[in-house]
């Protein structure tokens, strides 16, 4: 048994970040390891995931006052959402006893891990607002082995400074990334020669493991479509799912429409904002259809064998790669041709799971070889 530390976006209050952290921790624990997260939460990260009404920084104060003045009814539900994330972090993720808020604090700390796993998530994406040098684990002494499991550089790894990345990756025992494009970037620039592409940690676990997090009763009674997209509220996305609701004659629920005006033009879409990671899984599992523009939404739709549609998936390399690999390209809705025909069920899930088994097995081989 190894004592393992993980450094990732474990405390980013979004579903994909927390659930991928939970998945990697759980999988390594199932392998018999002693696992915890290095509780690194930069000042900036804590600032961007502030409570719905928070006065601890100028940014959060101004945002809170705007919300209070313009949308006072939203504060109660958004507060519930924040506490559900905080509760998930406290109850399901084992973190180091000390919290670190800066690279200086990490450099001054004494870590007694055998291995530190860097990843997954977009921790190497320089465009991610809470990424940074800490996620290359340069603060560790040479006695601690470093292994990268599935970190992402984002959509355009080529935009990174080659010399900087080469320096950051010195001393890694093994490197894997989440996208083929990232592997190509590292190998083409002679940054690293032996690079694996592995699956997102959320795909390491079965649906059964996630069902342990879900309460028995559906949060929403009756048939519904669950809609989720992680960034913004693109009106063209709402138009697509609103059209799907009309075809199926069932309502849409989303947790993203915090303010009344967001849904003014979409009669079939209802708001359900008090959703943390466990509630997110509940809404996916019990939906009649799932629709949206999130990579992790597609992952959990597949694991729960749902009928789903992925909006703009042809422009997202992660989603496109996953759905192509599993033979599910037909579930992509392009914004250039946004019309959905007659909604149809996915009938080939047996074949999908055979492909998933192969995809997953390579990632498990990487873990067994390097994280032991």
Short overview:
The chain is an alpha/beta fold.
Account of the 3D structure:
The longest helix is centred in the C-terminal third of the chain and has 22 residues, at 349-370. The model has no long low-confidence stretch (mean pLDDT 89). The strands form two sheets. The chain has a six-stranded parallel beta sheet with strand order 2-1-3-4-5-6, sandwiched between helices. By secondary structure, the chain is α/β, with parallel strands linked by helices. It is 39% helix and 13% strand.
The count of β-strands is: 12
Helix content, binned percent: 25-40%
**N→C terminal distance:** 7 Å
Main beta-sheet strand count, sense and barrel state: 6 strands, parallel
How is the topology of this model organized?
Layout: E1 3-7, H1 15-30, E2 34-37, H2 43-48, H3 58-70, H4 74-92, H5 103-108, E3 115-118, E4 145-148, H6 162-168, E5 172-177, H7 180-188, E6 195-197, H8 207-211, E7 225-228, H9 235-248, E8 252-254, E9 269-271, H10 277-285, E10 289-292, H11 295-303, E11 307-311, H12 317-325, E12 332-333, H13 349-370
Parallel strand pairs: 1-2, 1-3, 3-4, 4-5, 5-6, 7-8, 7-10, 8-9, 10-11, 11-12
Question: What brief labels describe this structure?
Answer:
372 residues, Rossmann fold, 2 domains, six-stranded parallel beta sheet
């Amino acid at each position: 048994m190894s004592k393992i530390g993980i450094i990732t976006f474990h405390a980013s209050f979004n579903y994909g970040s927390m659930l991928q952290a939970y998945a990697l921790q759980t999988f390594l624990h199932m392998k018999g390891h002693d696992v915890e997260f290095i509780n690194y939460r930069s000042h900036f990260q804590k600032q961007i995931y502030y409570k719905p009404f928070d006065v601890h920084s100028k940014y959060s104060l101004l945002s809170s006052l705007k919300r209070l003045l313009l949308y006072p009814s939203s504060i109660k539900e958004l507060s519930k959402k924040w506490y559900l994330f905080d509760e998930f972090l406290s109850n399901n993720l084992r973190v180091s006893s000390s919290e670190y808020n800066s690279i200086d604090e990490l450099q001054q700390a004494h870590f007694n891990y055998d291995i530190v796993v860097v990843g997954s998530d977009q921790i190497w994406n320089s465009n991610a607002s809470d990424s940074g040098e800490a996620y290359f684990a340069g603060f560790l002494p040479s006695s601690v082995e470093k292994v990268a499991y599935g970190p992402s550089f984002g959509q355009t790894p080529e935009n990174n400074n080659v010399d900087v990345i080469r320096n950051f990756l010195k001393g890694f025992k093994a490197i894997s990334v989440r996208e083929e494009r990232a592997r190509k970037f590292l190998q083409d620039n002679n940054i690293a020669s032996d690079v694996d592409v592995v699956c997102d940690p959320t795909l390491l676990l079965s649906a059964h493991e996630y069902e342990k997090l879900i309460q028995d009763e559906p949060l929403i009674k009756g048939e519904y479509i669950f809609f989720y997209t992680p960034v913004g509220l693109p009106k063209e996305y709402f138009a697509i799912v609103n059209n799907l609701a009309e075809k199926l004659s069932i309502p849409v629920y989303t947790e993203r429409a915090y303010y009344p005006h967001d849904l003014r033009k979409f009669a079939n879409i209802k708001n359900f904002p008090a959703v943390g990671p466990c509630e997110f899984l509940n809404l996916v599992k019990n939906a009649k259809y799932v629709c949206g523009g999130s990579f992790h939404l597609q992952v959990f739709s597949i694991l729960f064998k749902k009928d789903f549609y992925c909006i703009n998936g042809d422009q997202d390399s992660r989603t496109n790669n996953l759905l192509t690999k599993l033979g599910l390209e037909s579930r992509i809705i392009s914004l250039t041709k946004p019309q959905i025909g007659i909604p149809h069920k996915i009938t080939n899930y047996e074949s999908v799971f055979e492909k998933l088994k192969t995809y997953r097995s390579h990632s498990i081989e990487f873990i067994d070889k390097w994280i032991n």
